[in-house]
TrEMBL record:
GO molecular function: cysteine-S-conjugate beta-lyase activity; pyridoxal phosphate binding
Organism: Actinobaculum massiliense ACS-171-V-Col2
Similarity-based family: Belongs to the class-II pyridoxal-phosphate-dependent aminotransferase family. MalY/PatB cystathionine beta-lyase subfamily.
Protein name, entry field: cysteine-S-conjugate beta-lyase
Cofactor: pyridoxal 5'-phosphate
Amino acid sequence: MTYSFDSKTLDVLLSEGSRKWSEYPDCIGMWVAEMDLGIAPEIRDYLIGEAQRGTLGYLPPQDSAKILASAANWIGQFGERPDPEQMLLIPEVLSGLRLAISDFTAPGAPVVVPTPAYMPFLTIPGEFGREVIQVPSLFDGAHWSLDFDAIEAALSEGSLFVLCNPWNPVGRTLTREELLRISEIVERKGARVFEDAIHSSIIIDGAYIPYGTLTPTTKAHTITAFAASKGWNIPGLKAAQLIFHNPDDAAAIAPRASAISSPTSTVGARAARIAFEEAGDWNREVCTYLAENLALLEERVAKWPGARMAHVEGTYIAFIDFSQAGLGDDPAQTIRERAKVALTSGIACGAGYGQFTRMILATPRAIVEEALDRMEAIL
């Protein structure tokens, strides 16, 4: 089947009024990580049918079990299938991070985050009175890599390492060798890992390798969260999955499992099962479309004076370095004010990234081209 990802115009998106398009109503919105490309027809038909049936009650346990088995099957295609009995439904991936901090780290232990990072990773630990140790990554103008020596220096007994793979905002899919090196460091330091795999359903030309099921060592110290929200454009349905790879972790949380899962949306959890089981074709085609958008961006950035970016292997996000472009102390603000394109400032992604911008490319091609034209005009 061929899907139409170009149907929405700028006027339509502005009129629909999502946060992405209403916070800066005079701008092209490219700052919130959601798609403007519609949803899979299988999910659309399910949601319409559910509303027509009026079946919007609480999720029965037997449905939860089926949904978790479906999610385990889906993520198991990339590596070892996790045990659905050691999984929970949660409203969103960040709920999993909060749980990992509160229940699986030593009291007062820091949270170590490689930067640039997804913005809430740098703020959520503060909710628990925890220090965030930022570990700047290495960028040579074309490629991002983790600073393993600095990560080892930052980790301590009982601390938590936040692993985002695929990596928001730089678009890396980490290699097996990189993941094994992380594992060795974490184990040596007596730390834990929270693995955010929310973008594992948006692979451009990299490969997602699950960290949590990689080896017996990673299973022992990892909690993984993922969701259908990015790959099928359903973040507003509020459903994600949490994997306890260590049976002892699953047992420790079992008395609270129902309370942890209960805020998950009934329709969101069921829609996730539809995504994983029935809407694979839509996801594959949308990834092809996103790859073309990202290739267009990469081609344009290569011609812009003073700008550079790494090739995106996974996610629909680019992190663009404007440090030599003469756009002031905060290029995102300059671009928003002068080009009327709303991006995320690199300032929010970690210390030292004020000259970078985070750009979301999951929007119709004509709007991407219009945004690039506006940005190019001020360079």
